[in-house]
Amino acid sequence: MSRIGRKKIDIPANVKVQLTDQAITVTGPLGTLSMPLRPDVRVKWDEGEKAITVSIDEADMENRVVRACWGTTRANIQNMVDGVTKGYEKTMEVVGVGWTASVAGSKLKLVVGYANPIMMDIPQGLKVTVDKTFVKIAGADKRLVGQFAAEMRAKRKPEPYNGKGIKYADEVIKRKAGKTFGT
Q: What's the whole-model pTM score?
């Protein structure tokens, strides 16, 4: 039995939920998020309690895939509710001499030691701000914020010898000793 799937999702007063057979849509002060639903996972919206319950059929309790989707569906709906109320944010750090980041219209421009700058399209629904070497990525969709941060980090991963690269602000890079000469 899924411990996460059994929990109710409490909905704040400023959030509206629209439920159909195939999808759920959550609307709040920070935007609107929608997610398709699997046919073997049942989602019920209780207007009186202002809560969502996620369940599966008793016959599917032995099916590991359905049980996994039960907990995942509940967690994704909870992330949607948190996203439209509080939002999500990741902070990236560009480390390197002369390495910079800047926002140019709807693109993020990274100058990270290559011959040409790297231009990244900022997805719809994300807000990207640059403060010196720190890049803040904010938005309502947790998956979209994390995906953009991971793609940005992949452009120039931090290396362990000099510590240069694009890293998460709270990430710790294990440093290695370089070459030593003579005794």
A: 0.90
CB atoms within 10 A of CB 168: 15
Residue 39 tokens, joined: 């046919």
Burial 56-92 (b: 16+ CB within 10 A, else e): beeebeeeeebbebbbbbbbbbbbbbbbbbebbebeb
Q: Is the pLDDT of residue 183 over 70?
A: no
Nearest to 27 by CA among 36, 16, 38, 35: 16
Residue at 8: amino acid letter = K
Nearest to 60 by CA among 76, 89, 38: 38
List helix spans (H) across 35-141. 64-85
Residues 52-73: tens digit of each pLDDT: 999 999 888 889 999 899 999 9
